[in-house]
């Protein structure tokens, strides 16, 4: 259990040391602290150094208050946690918290903090790395934190600066692109059940990212463009997002069907802006869903503007690079048969996402149910009865079992609950695949449209 006093003292120390040491920058603050000190005003530091000013920033001095301390630490009453310490004080009128004796506070903190805590706070690590009783370096602590470019506040400021949402074209652009900060992605790679090939490709790309300077030196620049291929619900989107979470990178998601929509105006311009956003947010992951839309448009008699947009897309893929631009490109398609050679050759790695076999289905069920109370649960027997179902389907099965039990006033499930949910799922799935009057599909009562293979939620091997 976290010590409230330790949490608050760390926050006060960080604010003080960062204010005093002008050699530190935003990446020396832990992400949980950056959000409370962020200002949307353009940072002057970039202008002074001749660099492009950031869309916002963190300005000195950092002022700690009850409110900022509560948000940053999660301690409900920050002042109460540290009021009996000799080196803390609080201004009654403003609520400002500060240190009266910073050196004493630092000694107090180092005596009580473990190595992991110090190793995730670059500001404090910079102040103590020369001490004999600390074996943490400033550089190590910086590497342990994601860059500020991955923070939600930074992303929002950049998008607001880059796009004028009052302009119709830019408003369309924001409909085309969805950006997630890594802390907004709950799924991790540990939550997934992957094939050996998928695990191998992820290891390779993580290694390439870690050694991209070396790859640039030896002239190997055509790397970091992956195509995920497989049926809906097999985890293409989920794995991509989990990778962003694992690497601490912004996740820029684009659905190509939006490009071919008649309601989008300057589509080629929007495609260019999509890649420009990715470059400005770099390092990041650019995920292009429904990539088969490229082939459909290239072979059709659609308007020339749409074909220009697709040609712009292919050229943009050629021009972007993990090594040069710090952008990992992942394309995804449910229909690889519709891709032509021009689309295939844009990618250096093809990763297959098949429907899970029996063993994988059993593992997926274990992951999905690990927080559930299920009497006599036998995932292998459920796996035997769910051939052809994806991870997304299995999640829906468990959801229905839970909801059915809740309607009966139970929070403990049984194996029979799950088997009944499997049978019910298969019945609804068969109904949805029936030919309806005049060839039109119909909504199935009780289904609510939740089991849609084309909804873009590609959650196969998640929990």
Describe this structure in words.
With 463 residues, the chain is of the alpha/beta class. The chain folds into three domains: 4-145, no CATH class; 150-352, Rossmann fold, CATH 3.40.50.300; 358-439, Helicase, Ruva Protein, domain 3, CATH 1.10.8.60. The protein has 24 helices and eleven strands. The protein has helices at residues 4-20, 31-37, 44-48, 66-73, 78-82, 102-112, 115-119, 122-128, 138-143, 152-162, 168-176, 196-210, 212-217, 236-247, 256-259, 267-281, 292-299, 304-319, 322-325, 341-344, 358-368, 379-384, 391-407, 415-432, and strands at 64-65, 88-90, 96-99, 177-180, 225-229, 251-255, 284-289, 327-333, 349-352, 374-375, 413-414. The strands form three sheets. The chain has a six-stranded mixed β-sheet with strand order 4-6-7-8-5-9, sandwiched between helices.
Name of the CATH architecture of the largest domain: 3-Layer(aba) Sandwich
Mean pLDDT: 84
The rough form would be described as globular
Secondary structure tally, helices: 24
What is the percentage of strand-forming residues? 5-15%
């Amino acid at each position: 259990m976290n010590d409230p006093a330790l949490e608050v003292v760390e926050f006060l120390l960080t604010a003080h040391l960062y204010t005093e040491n002008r050699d530190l920058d935003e990446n020396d603050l832990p992400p949980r602290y950056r959000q409370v000190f962020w200002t949307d005003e353009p940072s002057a530091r970039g202008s002074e150094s001749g660099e492009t000013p950031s869309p916002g920033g963190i300005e000195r001095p950092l002022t700690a208050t009850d409110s900022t301390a509560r948000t940053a630490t999660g301690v409900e009453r920050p002042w109460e946690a540290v009021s009996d310490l000799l080196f803390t004080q609080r201004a009654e009128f403003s609520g400002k918290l500060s240190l009266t004796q910073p050196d004493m506070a630092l000694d107090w903190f180092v005596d009580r903090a473990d190595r992991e805590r110090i190793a995730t706070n670059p500001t404090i690590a910079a102040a103590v790395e020369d001490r004999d009783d600390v074996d943490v370096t400033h550089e190590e602590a910086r590497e342990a934190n994601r860059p500020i470019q991955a923070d939600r506040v930074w992303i929002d400021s950049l998008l607001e600066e880059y796009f004028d949402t009052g302009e119709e074209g830019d408003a369309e652009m924001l409909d085309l692109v969805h950006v997630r900060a890594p802390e907004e992605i709950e799924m991790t790679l540990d939550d997934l059940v992957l094939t050996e090939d998928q695990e191998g490709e992820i290891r390779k790309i993580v290694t390439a990212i870690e050694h991209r300077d070396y790859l640039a030196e030896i002239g190997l620049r055509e790397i970091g463009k992956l195509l995920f291929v497989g049926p809906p619900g097999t985890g293409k989107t989920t794995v991509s997002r989990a990778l962003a979470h694992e690497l601490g990178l912004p996740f820029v998601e684009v659905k190509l069907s939006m490009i071919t929509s008649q309601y989008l105006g300057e589509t080629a311009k929007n495609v260019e802006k999509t890649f420009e956003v990715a470059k400005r947010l770099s390092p990041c992951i650019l995920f292009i869903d429904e990539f088969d839309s490229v082939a459909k448009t290239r072979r059709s008699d659609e308007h020339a503007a749409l074909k220009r947009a697709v040609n712009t897309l292919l050229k943009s893929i050629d021009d972007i690079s993990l090594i040069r631009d710090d952008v990992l490109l992942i394309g995804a398609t449910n229909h690889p048969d519709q891709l032509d050679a021009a689309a295939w050759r844009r990618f250096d790695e093809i990763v297959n996402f098949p429907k899970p076999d029996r063993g994988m289905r059993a593992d997926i069920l274990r992951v999905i149910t690990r927080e559930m109370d299920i009497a006599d649960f036998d995932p292998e027997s459920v796996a035997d009865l769910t051939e052809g179902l994806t991870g997304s389907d299995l999640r829906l099965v468990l959801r229905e079992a839970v909801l059915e039990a809740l309607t009966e006033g139970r929070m403990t499930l049984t194996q029979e609950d799950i088997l009944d949910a499997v049978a019910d799922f298969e019945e609804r799935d068969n109904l949805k695949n029936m030919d309806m009057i005049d060839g039109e599909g119909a909504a199935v009562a009780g289904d609510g449209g939740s089991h849609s293979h084309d909804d873009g939620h590609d959650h196969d091997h998640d929990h």
